[in-house]
Specification:
By secondary structure, the protein is α/β, with parallel strands linked by helices. The chain has ten helices and ten strands. The strands form two sheets. An eight-stranded parallel beta barrel has the order 1-2-3-6-7-8-9-10. Strands 4-5 form a two-stranded antiparallel sheet. Helix 5 runs parallel beside helix 6. The chain is globular, with a radius of gyration of 19 Å. The protein starts with a helix and ends in a 5-residue tail after the last helix. It binds 2-acetamido-2-deoxy-beta-D-glucopyranose (2 copies). One 2-acetamido-2-deoxy-beta-D-glucopyranose binds next to helix 6.
Length: 335
């Protein structure tokens, strides 16, 4: 009896650690559906109006092979008071979008993306602005909604920038610990600085972020969140592309492999409706696909509530036809 019990608990420990240590084992590819983030600025200021992404886009893109949707939202919409409770009216609207994405296909994943640049109204989280506990509070509340759904990935923060990366790593560690204490077993996306730059990651925040531990055991459920654009200043504001980013991503992949075989998701990248971007973005996403499982996949920027004139739009035309960029450079590299 005693032996059996010991054996059982040993087996359950093994099962748990296998589970926790396991890398993300599904190739991901898809698109951002923006709208609930309109328009948080890079200072974390918000004075917008939520523009719910059209839910028809999820069945549209899923039927073409997409299995990842990143759904950004403004912190101030989810919790109108810093550190306060989630606004039930807003959450219900946001959740309808999340559920529409998840139910568009059986293997679809959603990144719930807090789109606030590590800031609330100009002040940096854990560095004079919101406390680490205030950031953890919104996430533990979201965990009470989504903590049992493995297909919901928590994007802990969009594009931190101009902050102390040592302290930022401590902030992320705090949030990871609080989420696990709250029972969440979700995959978590940890962003570095310089607007989540994939190029900066290996030498800037990466060395600090690889040290973050997971109370679940292992680090398989802590993925890194990177962004990279292909225009002249890596800002994603021009319609022409000047790089494939392959060299940058190769450097990132080496860093991840040499630091515990970690994984990352390219959760923003994109280009304009121009031949340079059809070529360069296609080559980039072809590389991302080939670098699986170190690079788990990508979500391109952006469909959702952007209209078809936005410089980086991937929103289909009203007649249902896709943007040429999507057809040429994104769709061929979906999972
Ligand atoms: C960043 O924060 C750490 C920890 O508080 C501190 O030791 C370090 O000097 C800071 N770095 C900079 C560049 O200010
Ligand atoms: C759909 O609309 C776009 C933009 O106006 C146009 O370029 C395309 O030819 C149309 N496709 C069809 C099948 O009508």
């Amino acid at each position: 009896m005693r032996f059996a019990k010991t054996l059982l608990s040993l087996l359950s420990v093994l099962a748990t650690s296998q589970h926790a240590l396991g890398q993300f084992a599904t190739r991901l590819g898809g698109v951002n559906t923006a709208g609930y983030d309109f328009s948080v600025d890079t200072n974390g200021d918000y004075s917008g109006t939520a523009a719910p992404p059209p839910t028809s886009q999820y069945t549209h893109f899923t039927s073409e092979g997409a299995n990842l949707y990143r759904i950004p939202f403004a912190w101030q919409l989810m919790t109108p008071t810093l550190g306060g409770t989630i606004d039930s009216t807003f959450f219900s609207e946001y959740d309808q979008t999340v559920q529409a994405a998840l139910s568009s296909g059986s293997g679809v994943y959603v990144i719930v993306d807090l789109h606030n640049y590590a800031r609330w109204n100009g002040d940096i989280v854990g560095q004079g602005g919101p406390t680490n506990a205030q950031l953890a509070s919104i996430w533990t509340q979201l965990a009470s909604k989504y903590g049992s759904n493995e297909q919901v990935i928590f994007g802990l923060m969009n594009e931190p920038h101009d902050l102390n990366v040592t302290e930022w790593a401590a902030t992320l560690q705090y949030v990871v610990n609080e989420l696990r204490s709250a029972g969440s077993e979700n995959y978590l996306l940890l962003p570095g600085s310089t607007y989540s730059s994939a190029e900066a990651f290996p030498t800037e925040a990466g060395p600090y972020l690889v040290q973050i531990t997971d109370p679940l055991g292992g680090t398989g459920k802590l993925l890194f969140d990177v962004h990279q654009y292909l225009d002249s200043d890596n800002s994603g504001t021009h319609d022409t592309c000047v790089t494939t980013n392959v060299a940058t991503l190769e450097t990132l992949v080496s860093f991840l492999q040499n630091n515990g075989n970690r994984q990352a998701i390219l959760s923003e990248t994109g280009g304009g409706e121009t031949t340079s971007c059809y070529t360069d973005l296609g080559e980039e996403l072809s590389y991302v696909k080939s670098a699986y499982p170190t690079l788990v996949g990508f979500s391109a920027w952006s469909a959702g509530s952007f209209d078809t004139t936005y410089v980086l739009t991937l929103t289909p035309y009203s007649n249902g036809t896709d943007e040429t960029l999507w057809t040429e450079a994104v769709r061929p590299y979906l999972p």
